[in-house]
Write a structure and sequence with these properties.
Elements lengths: L1 H9 L1 H28 L6 H8 L4 H34 L3 H16 L1
InterPro entries: AA_transpt_TM
Subcellular location: Membrane
Keywords: Membrane, Transmembrane, Transmembrane helix
Length: 111
């Protein structure tokens, strides 16, 4: 839903250009990280990567871990919102959004 909404706001040409540029940037980032991790095999996760890239800083390690946690929390929230909006659109009733959000949160907590 987010990608289709972005295309409806930006239009086809700017939307496709944005997606291609973002894909190139993600690829460059992943290749850079891969090369660094191949050079330093003791790196286990993204927090270790931040630790070594920023001069073995404990603050960088903690900040990277916090940002990873915040990213995951935001992704969960976006999935809950998207699912609720889909069910709201299918049911054609605005009160369902609140009920579906509470249901998704309860379901997510049980998993």
């Amino acid at each position: 839903m987010a990608q289709t909404w972005s295309l409806s706001v930006l239009g086809w040409v700017p939307g496709l250009i944005t997606m291609i540029v973002a894909g190139i940037l993600f690829w460059i980032t992943s290749m850079t990280m891969w090369r660094f991790i191949m050079k330093y095999p003791q790196i286990r996760d993204i927090c270790d990567f931040g630790y070594y890239v920023f001069g073995k800083s404990k603050i960088a390690y903690e900040f990277t871990g916090f940002m990873l946690l915040a990213n995951n929390i935001m992704l969960i929230g976006f999935h809950i919102l998207t699912g609720a909006k889909i069910l709201n659109t299918l049911s054609d009733h605005s009160q369902c959004t609140i009920v579906f959000n509470v249901g998704f949160i309860a379901l997510r907590r049980n998993l």
